[in-house]
Amino acid sequence: MKKLLGILALCAALPVFAQELAQGEVRKVDKDAGKITLKHGPIPSMDMPGMTMVFRVKEAAMLDAVKPGDKIRFDAQKIGGQYVVVKLEPAN
Predict the structure, then answer these.
(1) The whole model's pTM is what?
(2) Which residue blocks in 1-92 are alpha helix, DSSP H?
(3) Which parts of the chain register pLDDT below 70?
């Protein structure tokens, strides 16, 4: 029992590394405005269904790595009343 409690305490202290990312396709990149238009599937972190919409990006440099037609994986959050892509990577 003591060993089991120790294992449970260790598991509770570990950070959660697995995060489900949304799938999407880049439709438009507006570097001047710091925005990206994505046609996306569900976004688990925001409980949002799939749709096409415009997002701000957390860092402008994120837009240098994508172009219309690219398939991506991403995470977004609602920050200050705006939808913001906080993580972006090419889909494999």
Answers:
(1) 0.78
(2) 2-13
(3) 1-19
